[in-house]
Amino acid sequence: QPKRKAAFGSVGRRIPYRILHVINQDGESLGNMHRAEALRLMDEHGLKLVLLRENVEPPVYRLMTGQQIHEEQLKRAEKKKASPKPGVVQKELSFSSAIAKNDLETKMKQIALWIEKKHHVKVTVRQAK
């Protein structure tokens, strides 16, 4: 089964790599170091190690405070929520040009709800005989 992308957060002491590229909490590179040295830094400064990029050699970890981790999680959640979802839903509505006023108002409310939900709306007006 494919490896699932882990949630953004502290990896604790479970680091499968011997050599890591470490970035401090201010974003400055501390270079490559052994995982024991990275854990020592983490304990000394009271910070947490967070995996940033796993697919590079050596993998990139960052020392972060709990507040920084929380803020990053919120940013990622907002970004995910804002990104368009695959398979956009299209709604279609058709009515006659002789439609009654209250029926038209009802259908307009439905259209407004669909637009709020980010659906594509197609409206067709047929000519009344």
From TrEMBL:
<dbReference type="GO" id="GO:0032790">
    <property type="term" value="P:ribosome disassembly"/>
</dbReference>
<comment type="similarity">
    <text>Belongs to the IF-3 family.</text>
</comment>
<protein>
    <submittedName>
        <fullName>IF3M factor</fullName>
    </submittedName>
</protein>
<dbReference type="InterPro" id="IPR019814">
    <property type="entry name" value="Translation_initiation_fac_3_N"/>
</dbReference>
<dbReference type="GO" id="GO:0070124">
    <property type="term" value="P:mitochondrial translational initiation"/>
</dbReference>
<feature type="domain" description="Translation initiation factor 3 N-terminal">
    <location>
        <begin position="11"/>
        <end position="78"/>
    </location>
</feature>
<dbReference type="InterPro" id="IPR001288">
    <property type="entry name" value="Translation_initiation_fac_3"/>
</dbReference>
<dbReference type="InterPro" id="IPR036788">
    <property type="entry name" value="T_IF-3_C_sf"/>
</dbReference>
<dbReference type="GO" id="GO:0043022">
    <property type="term" value="F:ribosome binding"/>
</dbReference>
<dbReference type="GO" id="GO:0005739">
    <property type="term" value="C:mitochondrion"/>
</dbReference>
<dbReference type="Pfam" id="PF05198">
    <property type="entry name" value="IF3_N"/>
</dbReference>
<dbReference type="GO" id="GO:0003743">
    <property type="term" value="F:translation initiation factor activity"/>
</dbReference>
<keyword id="KW-0396">Initiation factor</keyword>
<keyword id="KW-0648">Protein biosynthesis</keyword>
<dbReference type="InterPro" id="IPR036787">
    <property type="entry name" value="T_IF-3_N_sf"/>
</dbReference>
